[in-house]
Amino acid sequence: MHYGTAEQIRQQRQTTLDAAHAAHPDRFNRRPHAPKLPDQAWINQPAQQQQTVSV
């Protein structure tokens, strides 16, 4: 994702899944799909900070 290749890799995975399905359709209940790309990806997600309101 850091190099902007995530969509290209996802497409390659889908091509591989399509080829596997075409070669062995009896192994699948339905056509497989590559996972969708996440909106955000974290190694160490920052802790959620709660906002306090003073009155």
From TrEMBL:
Domain of life, source organism: Bacteria
Region of interest (Disordered), residue spans: 1-55
Bias type Low complexity, positions: 40-55
Compositionally biased spans, kind Polar residues: 8-17
Entry protein name: Uncharacterized protein
